[in-house]
Amino acid sequence: MHIFGRALNKIHSIWLRWSYPFAFFGHGVSVHVTSVVSRARCARMRIGNSVSLKAYSWLLVATEDPNGEPILVLEDNCHIGPGTVISAKNK
Question: Which of 11, 38, 76, 90 could make an S-S bridge to 48, C-beta 3.0–4.6 Å?
Fold first, then answer.
């Protein structure tokens, strides 16, 4: 069952990488299938290499403007724990 869960997270991460318009989405990123990332605002998000988002974590950008520099930036090797909510408005 553990292997199935890891495979599902891998597929979910690949799907996010190719279907969401992130400002940057690094290599080796792992996003748990239960995590929430706003597609409408992900153009203002920069996710570095080897970042992991655990179960039920949320990434939010608190602005209506979809254009401009990334506001929410997760640098390389950042690990977001289960149930964490990160909301950014001014970088």
Answer: 76
